Amino acid sequence: FKAASEKLEMEGERAARRAAGSARTAFMLMLGSGLAALGGVGKKKLLWLASLVLAAGGAAAFLVALFLGW
């Protein structure tokens, strides 16, 4: 019984880490698209470039999670 509960606990921790990574990735992509919109409307090149960096980071985190299973 104890071994089964430890296994379930480890699986729960792994799922929690994966969910946190997914939330972080989604937030980075959302923030990047929001900055891109603000940069486009306000014609601010710095905001638009910052959005590219955030969107690239979010996309990279998504691909790492997808292929490496983090």
Helix content: over 70%
For the terminal residues, how far apart are their CA atoms? Answer: 28 Å
Instruction: Give the averaged pLDDT, no decimals.
Output: 78
| Sheet of most strands | none
Order of helices and strands: HH
Portion in beta strands: under 5%
The Cα radius of gyration reads: 17 Å
Tally of individual helices: 2
Stretches where pLDDT is under 50 for at least 5 consecutive residues are none
Shape: rod-shaped
Number of strands: 0
Strand pairing plus helix content: what structural class? Answer: mainly alpha
Describe this structure as you would to a colleague.
The chain is an all-alpha fold. Helix content is 93%, strand content 0%. The chain is built from two helices and no strands. It is rod-shaped and about 60 Å long. The model has no long low-confidence stretch (mean pLDDT 78).
List the helices and strands and how they pair.
Layout lengths: L1 H41 L2 H24 L2
Helix pairs in contact: 1-2
Summarize this entry quickly.
The chain has 70 residues and is an all-alpha fold. Helix content is 93%, strand content 0%.
